[in-house]
Amino acid sequence: MYMFKNRNSNYYSRIYLPKKLAVSGCPAEVRFSLRTKSRSTAIDRSLLILQKARTLIARAMKESDLDAKTFISSLKEELNLIACNSFLSEGILPAHNQPVEKQQDRKVHTNPSREDLVTRFIDFKQAEGVKPKNLGLMRSRIQSLIQATDKPFEEITAREASGFLKKLYEKRLSAKTVRDYLAAIKQFYNWLILMEYARANPFGLVKAKSDGRLASEQRRKWRRQELGRLFSHDNFTGVIGSNDSHLNYQKKLEDYWIPHLLLFTGARVSEICQLSTKDVVKLGDIWCISINENDGKSIKSRASIRHVPLHNKLLSLGFLDYVNQRAETYQKKLFDIKPYGQNNCWSEQFGKRFAKVLTQQGFHGKDRPTLHGLRHTFIDTAQSEGIAENEIADIVGHTKQTMTYGRYGKRVSLVRLQLAVNRIEFKVFARND
Predict the structure, then answer these.
(1) CATH number of 219-423, picked from 1.10.443.10, 3.10.20.600, 1.50.10.10, 1.20.1740.10
(2) Is the pTM of this model over 0.90?
């Protein structure tokens, strides 16, 4: 690691990462602002940054399956927390013979109410491009802190922050949910410091316990018997009556096709619910669905934009007949699903309908399988079939994690993706294609 000055004479620390981490997709170096123009102060701060960075890098070197994106994000967050705590969080003080850059003497604005500060922060995150659904979650998590204490934000201590964490655990929230709460509040405090509404982040050193399970174990997939029970529901076996109204008829078709599409494409619920009729396309000899952001559709990331070959099972069930019927009646949308609530959530409306089906089929409790779990089931089944990770990523819209595939790899051809998709079988369905 060494220091350098930018054109504004501010000092930066440049941290070189081991070559072993580069193989996992990490960059060669990470740069971090020391937030000072004083060389002596920069040296002291760089020592603190180096100490924390070396600890995190050593831990990463021991991981056999490192997620580069998560590691770099975690590294930057940890270093930023040190900066937000005036570079004093580990007890290293500025040089005794240099004037201290007194963060504590900075003017702190106290006029706005707590609710007003939260609103300003949410407006700031909205300007950054954060999606409405995530803004709503962020607001509710920060509001939980307001409900827990009457103190102004700048007066909350680290001990009280730790007590807030204890209250979250007492609510029997999952480890991931607790981490999400802390992440939102830490972001909020970093903004408060930036805008001079607070001097330090009391949650800077508050850590949530890890889940203790592998990421793959945290995903609830459908078991074979559960799929059999689900697809024995009248939605999938009953005959649509001739006396159905148009609205009821269309709902029954949606109840039939959306779960099938989720299971046989691995797509996200919102991606399927947003599909336009023209998004079902034939490229060469391969029928696909096009996941895109045209016509105001929203996507999770750039990797989400893709073409997914239709499984032979979907074709044999008559999916193209349904698509043609929508096109012939001049329907722009493939399904009559509308975004729901303030967050314009595309999956919530159909998710509530599907929840009733789960209850009717005897699925109860917090651990019951979910609509989104059909996507996980597709991914896990693809992995068990030995399908290459980069092919699965192109099918389901994941960002490729390794440097080789992520930076240099092109998209897999549709022919190969079609072969991969059709290798996936669910034994609850008879092969009639």
Answers:
(1) 1.10.443.10
(2) no
Tokens of 341: 């609530």
C-beta of residue 226 within 8 angstroms of C-beta of residue 146: no
CB 41 within 8 A of CB 95: yes
pLDDT of residue 413: 92
- Cβ 399 vs Cβ 70: under 8 Å: no
Query: If you write DSSP's letter for every residue of 353-391 in order, what string do you get?
Result: HHHHHHHHTT--STTS--STHHHHHHHHHHHHTT--HHH
Do residues 256 and 236 touch, judged by C-beta distance below 8 A?
Answer: yes
Sheet of 11-16, strands arranged across: 2-5, 11-16, 29-33
Q: What are phi and psi of 364, to 5 degrees?
A: -135, 165
Say how far apart CA 238 and CA 258 lie, in whole Å.
Answer: 16
Residues composing the chain = 433
CATH number of 107-213, picked from 1.10.150.130, 2.40.100.10, 3.30.390.10, 1.10.1520.10: 1.10.150.130
Sheet containing 286-291: give its strands across: 280-283, 286-291, 306-309
- At 134, give phi and psi (nearest 5°): -70, -30
Give the tens place of pLDDT for each residue, 101-142. 444 444 555 568 999 999 999 988 887 778 788 888 999 999
Q: What is the DSSP string of 23-36?
A: HTT--SEEEEE---
Mean pLDDT of 183-191: 93
* pLDDT, tens digit, 9 for 90 and up, residues 191-237: 999 888 898 999 988 888 776 554 444 567 899 999 999 999 989 98
* Structural domain boundaries in the chain: 1-95, 107-213, 219-423
Token pair 């504004």 is found at 8
What pLDDT, on a 0 to 100 scale, did the predictor assign at position 245? 67
DSSP 422: H
**Angstrom distance (rounded) from CA 14 to CA 30:** 6
Q: Is 91 left (phi over 0), alpha (psi -120 to 50) or beta?
A: left
What's the first-to-final CA gap in the chain, in angstroms? Answer: 60
